[in-house]
Amino acid sequence: MRMELLSRYLLLPAFLLIGGIVTAPAQDNDCAAALTDKENGRDVCLQKGKRICLRLNARLATGFGWKVTKIDTGKLQLVSESTEKVDEDEAGREIQIFEFKAIAQGEVELELTYARPWEKEKPPAKRYGLRVIIY
Fold first, then answer.
1. How distant is the alpha carbon of residue 61 from its chain centre?
2. Beta strand pairing status for 126-134 and 43-46?
3. What does the alpha-carbon distance between residue 73 and residue 108 come to, in Å, rounded to a whole number?
4. Is residue 36 within 8 Å of 68, Cβ to Cβ?
5. How distant, in Å, are the alpha carbons of 69, 89, 99, 120, 131 from that of 51?
6. CA quadruple 99, 104, 109, 111: dihedral, nearest 10
7. Contacts of 67 (CB under 8 A, 6+ apart)
8. CA–CA distance, 7 with 12 (Å, rounded to integer)
9. Cα(42)–Cα(78) distance, rounded to whole angstroms?
10. What is the dihedral angle through the alpha carbons of 28, 39, 52, 114, rounded to the nearest 10 degrees?
11. Nearest in space to 98 (alpha carbons), one of 72, 70, 127, 68
C-alpha cells in the first residue's frame, strides 16, 4: 500500500508534464477544473476537497439530457446540477452543468449518458466518461 501511494505521487508529476492527465483551468468560481465535451475519456487529477464542473452540450427541448450513470459516491459526490442557455443563434442548445466534489482519495470511474428517459429500451445517444484520480 505504501509503495502504491509512493509510486502514484511520484508518477503524478510525470503525467502532468507529459499531458497524460487533464488539469483544466477553472472557469467557475468554486471549481478547480471546468471540463467540457473535449475531455471525454480522459484522466482528471483532483485534490481531495476540491470540485470539478462538467459543462456538457445538450438540447433539452428534444427530450435528450445528460444523467450520471456511474460514480463512486464514497469518493466523489454530485453537489449540484443546473442548465445554462446559449445564444439564441444556437437553435436551442443548452449547457448542462454538473458539479462534483472530491471527498476521499482514490480513483473513480465517472460516466454520464445522453438519452431520453422514456426510451429505456434504446441505448444512449452519447456517453461521457472520466477517470478521476483524487489525491
1. 23
2. parallel
3. 9
4. no
5. 19, 31, 7, 31, 14
6. -20
7. 112, 113, 115, 117
8. 8
9. 19
10. 100
11. 68
d(CA 103, CA 92): 35
pLDDT tens across the length of the chain (135 residues): 544 544 444 444 434 333 344 444 444 468 898 999 999 999 999 999 999 999 999 999 999 999 999 999 999 999 999 999 887 665 778 999 999 999 999 999 999 999 999 999 999 999 999 999 999
- How far out from the chain centre does Cα 49 lie? 15
Nearest to 71 by CA among 39, 34, 102, 36: 102
Cβ-based neighbour number of residue 134 at 10 Å: 21
Look at strands 126-134 and 76-85 and give their pairing: unpaired
